[in-house]
Amino acid sequence: MLGRKGILAFLSGTLPGRRGTCKSEKSIARNTVAFTFAGVLYIKLHRTNIITFDKQGRPTLRMGGWNTVTTRERMDRFLPKRWYVFNRKGEAYVGYRGKEWTDPHKTYPFVEGMRLNLNGTVTYPKGA
Q: 103 lies in a domain?
C-alpha cells in the first residue's frame, strides 16, 4: 500500500534504532529523503515531512506552507495508488480514483495534516 514500489522495497526490514533513533535515511529523489522513526515512515522534502505513513500504512499530508509544483509532484510520486494531489486556481486538492473507471471520483480540499484512509475517504485534523 505504501507509495510507488521503491519506498517499501527500500524500507522493508529497516526499523528504528534503539530508543526511537532514526536508523536509516535514504535519498529517493532530489532534495527528498525517506526514513523511519519509531516504526513510522516519513518522506521529507527539504525540511518538511510531506508524507507520514503510520503503522497501518495510512498517509498524513503536510506542505508546510509550500504549495509548489515540486511539493505536489513528490506527494503524487509517493502516495498510494489512486491518490493524487493537484492545484486548481491556486488551491491544493487531493483526489481519489476508484478501482474501476465507473467508480465515482472523489476530490477533497487539501488541509495541512489531513489523513488519507484506505477506503478512499479522508480524516481532517481537529479544528480544520
A: yes
Residue 75 resides in a domain: yes
Count the domains in the chain: 1
Per-residue pLDDT of the chain (128 residues; tens, 9 = 90+): 444 554 555 455 443 344 445 557 888 889 999 998 888 899 999 999 999 999 888 999 999 999 999 999 999 999 988 999 999 999 999 999 987 777 778 999 999 999 999 889 999 999 86
Q: What is the pTM of this model?
A: 0.82
Q: Residue 77 is part of which domain span?
A: 6-123
In a domain, 1, yes or no: no
User: Between the CA of residue 84 and those of 1, 2, 66, 88, 93, what are the distances in Å?
Assistant: 14, 13, 17, 13, 8
Calpha distance 60→77 (Å, rounded):
15
